Amino acid sequence: MPRFASARAWLALSILAATSTFLAANAPNGNVLPKAQSTPTRPAIIGVSHIGLRTDNLDASRKFYTGVLGFSEAFSLDDPPGKLLLTYFKVNDHQFIEVFPELKDVNEDRLSHIAFETTDAEQLRAYMASRGVDVPAQLDPMLDGNRGFEAKDPDGHTVEFVQLMPGSIHSRDFGKHMPDTRISQRIIHVGVTVRDRAAADKFYRDILGFQETWNGGMKDTETDWVDMRVPDGTDWLEYMLNLGNHPSPRLLGIMHHFALGVPSVSDAYKTLRGRDPKAVTEKPQIGRDGKWQLNLYDPNLTRAELMEPKPVRTPCCSPMKQ
Question: What digits encode the pLDDT tens for the residues 93-123?
Fold first, then answer.
């Protein structure tokens, strides 16, 4: 029995040595073949970071976002020096409305881009590249001091992914520029037009991990909107379907929108009416999702939707997932 065990051990060692010699001889440049690299995993995508909007009248935009909605213009960026690139209206430490004074044509889309916050921009870039998404080959320095990159979704919308970094203009402003005048303390969703839901699902759901929480329409038998929650937070992206051909700037402004969460739409309505009655052209209503909402429009027709967190009546069309 001991002799048999020794023979087996000798045979195993001989096979191992022969295998190692073969691999070394057949590896490039005589080096041992490298281990297979693991596929990158997706880091957390925790919520809406910001929405970028274009304007042709920055003074009017300032009046709306500060005077009506009550946000503070926290800081701005020049590029090149001396030329304003954009300004930031602060909702909270992690969320902003970015306004670019670059609208040149009345028919131009007011939406510049949407953005989501991630915990690791480089890992997300590598992950998306591994899934076949066209992303930059590397992360370049950002003017604001954060890390991030842009990609195009199937409808051609620019989608930015941002990781807030120590020392950035955002992190240096933590705890500042958040006055009590803010009509809301959170952007709860952003909405963009989607012409091909299946293609959008492949990008947002299958690759990025967004999950559908509700869908509905103007009629019970149709789907005009789909709520897609970020994988690691509570904010969501709203697909705006059935756009039609040649949408007007007014219609695009309704579709390309952002929503601000408020505890009471009724109270917000009274506050806004007190600040500027002309800016409040609609009355509160209960949407098809069963939630109280109020629509306002900035000077360039982008819709700012105020919304309560929970339905007060049963949502139409499909169950609302928690």
Answer: 999 999 999 999 999 999 999 999 999 999 9
